[in-house]
Write a structure and sequence with these properties.
Length: 346
């Protein structure tokens, strides 16, 4: 059974990916310093899969502590690197904190991979590397734009670091996965996204609907789009998770044609903010209390994926539609209200 190291395994996408990896026969360990993630995620993973997952509470910016994990686990076959800060507004306020954390952790991890001959690496990137694309849907050949935030810049720099590293390490193979907008929760409602103070649209919607937030604002209704609100490509977190499993299988089976390959992870469908709200109201039966507010600085007007490359090469496809995304997100929010033990361990 191949052992996979997942960094950020106690986080939203990392945790859901661990479930998919286990269900596809992989053994998994996690490195997570719990600065953003929670051990609740590992408790939930064990409930869903029946398998306990060991987490090493290590800051990847500490090379010695990171190396110790590899020494204790000489049988690591592959690495999926999620651990990073990901708040756009926070990165604007504290750019150096983002460069230090997101880049030092990646460089340390690559050094450990080299020292321990771990040659299968999947890097968590983001559609934010495209900025405001001129051509839609956007494919992997599109030019990268000047990033809208230091967070997006750390993703662009992270991709370049992985690419340069793969050029000088002949056996090393890396896949860069550019996520569009991951949303929703595991269908069991045992695990999901834990955002205390949500910034992203879907947790803001569900927290408004459940009464945690009194109201919400639609950031801009005067854009040049079909209903004036921004367009995004919302994709279920379990579809994102399965793409990671498929990417590792692709690398382990040596199916890659280049040492560094890029894949978009989106549904290929653009959905406006107002359309998403309507989908949520239809699925939940809740009337959402929202106002049409001013634009949010730095927002991309419209972005959605051309996902043909991932579907063709990774033997991957979309399994969850928009209504299931809203349904699982809503059932997770309701589960959180019922069961405080799902909330982050303090
Ligand atoms: C989506 C749309 C908002 C909140 C960011 C990162 C990206 C990735 C996903 C990490 C936008 C609107 C939002 C609200 C609103 N992060 N909105 N009211 O900005 O597309 O992407 O998160 O990987 O890298 O950039 O996601 O969910 O914040 O916003 O109207 O209260 O919802 O203006 O149009 P975004 P988001």
């Amino acid at each position: 059974m191949s052992k996979i190291l997942v960094t950020g395994g106690c986080g939203y996408i990392g945790g859901h990916t661990i479930v998919d990896l286990i269900e596809n026969g992989f053994e998994v360990i996690s490195i997570d310093d719990l600065s953003r993630g929670s051990l609740r995620m590992l408790e939930g993973i064990e409930k869903v899969t029946g398998k306990p997952v060991k987490n090493y509470k290590v800051n990847l910016c500490d090379l010695e502590d990171t190396e110790a994990v590899f020494i204790e686990n000489p049988d690591i076959t592959g690495i999926i690197h999620f651990a990073a800060y990901k708040s756009v507004p926070e990165s604007v306020q504290y750019p150096l904190k983002y460069f230090r954390n997101n880049l030092d952790s990646l460089v340390n991890l690559l050094q450990c991979a080299q020292e321990n001959n771990v040659n299968n690496f999947v890097f968590s990137s983001s559609c934010s590397v495209y900025g405001n694309p001129t051509k839609l849907p956007v494919d992997e050949k599109a030019d990268l734009a000047e990033p809208e935030s230091p967070y997006a810049r750390t993703k662009q720099m992270g991709e370049a670091i992985c690419r340069d590293f793969s050029r000088v390490n002949p056996d090393f193979k890396v896949i860069l996965l550019r996520y569009f907008n991951p949303v929703g929760a595991h269908p069991s409602a045992i695990i999901g996204e834990l955002q205390e103070k949500p910034e992203n649209l879907v947790p803001v919607i569900t927290q408004t609907a459940i009464g945690k937030l009194p109201e919400m604002n639609v950031f801009g209704s005067d854009y040049d789009t079909r209903d004036g609100s921004c367009v995004r490509d919302y994709i279920h977190v379990m579809d994102i998770a399965n793409a990671h499993t498929k990417s590792l299988q692709y690398l382990i089976e040596d199916k890659n044609t280049d040492a560094c390959e890029v894949f978009n992870l989106g549904t290929g469908e653009g959905v406006t903010v107002l359309e998403l709200i309507q989908a949520f109201e239809k699925v939940s039966g809740e009337k959402l209390n929202y106002n049409l507010g001013p634009r949010r600085p730095g927002d991309v007007v419209a972005v959605y994926a051309d996902n043909c490359k991932a579907r063709a090469l990774l033997d991957w496809d979309i399994k969850y539609g928009l209504e299931e995304m809203m349904d699982t997100a809503w059932r997770w929010e309701q589960a959180l209200k019922k069961d405080a033990t799902k909330l982050p361990l303090k």
